[in-house]
Amino acid sequence: MLTLVLIGLLGGLITAVSPCILPVLPVVFLTGAPGKDASAPREAAASVGVARAGAGVVTADAPREAPRPPARNHRPYAVVAGLVLSFSFFTLLGVTIITALGLPQDIMRYLGLSLLILIGLGLILPPVERLLEKPFARIPQRRINKEGSAFVLGLGLGLLYVPCAGPVLAAITVAGARGEISADIVALTLAFAVGTAIPLLVFALAGRRVAERVAAFRTRARKVRIVSGALMIALAFALAFDVTTALQRALPDYTASAQKQVEDSDAARQQLSGLYDDSNEELSRCEDGVNELRSCGPAPPIAGISAWLNTPEGRPVDLASLRGRVVLIDFWTYSCINCQRSLPHIKDWDRAYRDKGLTVIGVHSPEFAFERDAGNVADQTREFGITYPVALDNKLDTWDNYRNRFWPAKYLIDAQGTVRHFTFGEGRYAQTEELIRELLAEADPGTRLPPPTGQVNDQLTEGRTPETYLSTHRIRGYTGTPELTADKAVAYAFPPGGVPLNKVSLAGTWTASYEQLTTGPNARLALTYRAKNANLVLAGEGTVTVLVDGKQTKSLQVRGTPTLYRLTDHDTAREARLELRLTPGLQAFAFTFG
């Protein structure tokens, strides 16, 4: 469990500095603003002295009572504590409570917005703040009593806090939605919440420091409170009308790499996968985002769907009925900024390749309770301009079937119903489109595909040969005789008609294995490519003679562990026929092109 807690803590720390938490930062920072009694000690001391002197109690020679030091502002701690408590509780139990009481799925969001507005009014109107602090009046400690409204503010922010979801938050959300709450899940949730709280608390304390050091905050405390209240009310309306997402979409996801290194590491996968069952384990044979097609097992069914959008009369889509077509399944949820940034690419692919044999299916797997509302999803689907079928996976059955851990996640299924590739998170759009095109050509070799959507205006990368692996497990585009044979020295021959574009062929003796090809006597390799330069990862000790279009251009000395060697370097991208003549004992792993 210690490893699980550490993963949750690091995941929370990364999440708390991601672009997704920007909407709550102004409020967290403003919690450091002076409270309504911030200047009370000095004024109170003066008034006491005047009152006593007026009553004749204090004489000119009588010692004066020393003024009390100002009370410390604990509002930052109260706000962050309320946020962590609210977020943890309702992430785990919110769906269960709402469902049991028969309440609307988005009631928590509306409650959070209402509290934010109420706190804003409390900063502007003291009677409203006194009303908010009343539930805490019975608590003996005066400071806790005074910070009651700040704690309520934190509770409200916890209901509106929509962090970017990685595997850790996904595991917590899925467990809460399904009511499968174990000691491990509770520990993971608390660790994630504490990790999230640390940067937020630092930010809140920085706001308090500014409020204490800047004279304007002390001398104009009343005006600062009014401005703070107005900003909170404005933020509530911005969140209600989804204004803040435009800013979030415009910013790059600068924490994505760190999140994947922590939450999608081998240790994290092992810990988080232990929270689920062992169904569809074949999907684990494939890795996220590799630049090739693999066989990842039969595509699991799209099951447990509460409703369908963008289908005739809301009828379900059966994967079995799509045999012969390539299918892209996109797991998304409408409040996820990462998902929103990936949607334009998916819509482009749908428009470009729908008539060429591609079917796109969006599986909307909610992260939060308000995303389970079918009306909300339908509105957002129209707002985003999505026209392909969308399945509402409110029970997260399909999410579980695909052993998914990320929003967004894309799965490619070939015409025979086999999962051939998946990629988690944003990015790799050109790579994914290239694999879609490869599957479409595989399903219908005679089809004429339009230019790639992401490369129509890119002279440098248009038509560039993709990365090509050299192994029995990962090679694609092999041509020649005989067929590639695993773990056995075989004599191969180039095809008589030459090697087509983006195809690779062997001649002489080679031993093909799971990770590389090993040269034997008279080993040669031919490849026709389009790029500005060609590179090959080689290992062992020997010589490689490079020929371009039948002319020798260089000779390379290979020594040691796998290293990338530059084979060709043209002035501009062009098509060329590459032939390599290799001495025995060398290992070839993969071509890359630039």
Topology, please?
Elements: H1 2-15, H2 25-30, H3 40-54, H4 75-101, H5 107-124, H6 126-133, H7 142-146, H8 148-160, H9 167-178, H10 183-213, H11 215-219, H12 221-240, H13 244-250, H14 256-263, H15 266-273, E1 307-309, E2 326-332, H16 337-353, E3 358-364, H17 374-383, E4 390-392, H18 397-401, E5 409-413, E6 419-424, H19 429-443, E7 468-469, E8 489-492, E9 504-512, E10 517-519, E11 523-548, E12 551-582, E13 587-593
Parallel strand pairs: 2-3, 3-4
Antiparallel strand pairs: 1-4, 2-5, 5-6, 7-13, 8-9, 9-10, 9-11, 10-13, 11-12, 11-13
Helix pairs in contact: 1-10, 1-14, 4-8, 4-9, 4-10, 5-6, 5-8, 5-12, 9-10
Question: What features would you describe in this structure?
Answer:
With 594 residues, this protein is α+β, with helices and mostly antiparallel strands. 41% of the residues lie in helices and 19% in strands. It is built from 19 helices and 13 strands. The chain has helices spanning 2-15, 25-30, 40-54, 75-101, 107-124, 126-133, 142-146, 148-160, 167-178, 183-213, 215-219, 221-240, 244-250, 256-263, 266-273, 337-353, 374-383, 397-401, 429-443; strands at residues 307-309, 326-332, 358-364, 390-392, 409-413, 419-424, 468-469, 489-492, 504-512, 517-519, 523-548, 551-582, 587-593. The strands form 2 sheets. Strands 7, 8, 9, 10, 11, 12 and 13 form a 7-stranded antiparallel β-sheet that branches. Strands 1-4-3-2-5-6 form a 6-stranded mixed β-sheet, covered by helices on one side. A hairpin with a 5-residue loop joins strand 5 (409-413) and strand 6. Helix 4 packs across helix 8 (148-160), helix 4 (75-101) runs antiparallel to helix 10 (183-213) and helix 5 runs antiparallel to helix 8 (148-160). The longest helix is centred in the middle third of the chain and has 31 residues, at 183-213. It is elongated and about 90 Å long.
